[in-house]
Amino acid sequence: MNNMIYVHTGEVKGGQADAVLQSTPIGSCVVIMAWSAIRRFGTMAHVMLPGCASEAAPTPTRYAINAIETLSDNMASYAPLTETGVCLLGAANVLKKADDTICQNNIHSITEYLKRKGIPVHAAILGGDQRKMACLYVREGRMTYTQGESSEKTLWQYMDKQKRNGIKKRESTYG
After folding, report:
1. Topology adopted by domain 3-174
2. How confident is the model over 76-121, as pLDDT tens digits?
3. Which of 18, 40, 80, 172 is the most buried (most CB within 10 A)?
4. Rounded CA separation 157/143 (Å)
5. What's the rounded Cα separation, in Å, for the pair 106 and 40?
6. H helices within 41-158, ranges in order?
7. Could you tell me the CA-to-CA distances from 99 to 95, 104, 132, 149 in Å, in that order?
């Protein structure tokens, strides 16, 4: 039986073996997911805002840098993010505002910080104008998503070295 763990806006949560981490709907937010093959541990951050929180912020993990640092701390005893990598999902302009910059600011803040920290991105679907939802099945190391009213699709799936031979890496999409 799976242990469903919901990750709401501004939260960072993790789980082992029987956990399934499920985001709430994602609009302009970005969900960051990481998974350790060695320890069968996964963690998910639901980032709302770019940059770093002020000291007075009531929920610092709503901000990109704080959320990534917390996600990294959650993974630290299982495997460093520089060795596991992450997947990204979200940043949709669901209100279809021509002058909306939050989505691009979130994408830029997160991807630049990950690059600076040397954390690889396995797969990403960012941008567009449809809401998304993310799910991380910890036992099998599978990250899935829905977009709009679509059925669940695989964003990234762990494969050991024997299975990886001959399989092309999924291309990331931004926009």
Report:
1. 60s Ribosomal Protein L30; Chain: A; (3.30.1330)
2. 988 889 888 899 999 999 999 999 999 999 999 999 999 999 999 9
3. 40
4. 6
5. 28
6. 64-75, 81-84, 102-117
7. 11, 11, 21, 25
Nearest to 103 by CA among 58, 49, 152, 139: 49
**Among all chains, which residue has been given the structure tokens 């036992």?**
139
In sequence order, what are the residues at sequence separation of 6 or more whose Cβ sits closer than 8 angstroms to the Cβ of residue 63? 47, 48, 49, 50, 51, 52, 53, 57
User: Interior CA angle at 88 toward 103 and 107, to 5°?
Assistant: 25
Three-state DSSP at 72 gives helix
**For 86-97, how does the pLDDT look when each residue is reduced to its tens digit (9 = 90+)?**
999 999 999 999
SS3 of 158, please? coil
- DSSP state letters, 43-61: EEEEE-BSS---TT-S-GG
Nearest residue to 173 (alpha-carbon basis) of 136, 135, 147: 147
Domains of the chain by residue range:
3-174
Whether the CB-CB separation of 29 and 106 falls below 8 Å is answered with: yes
* CA 29 from centre of chain: 10
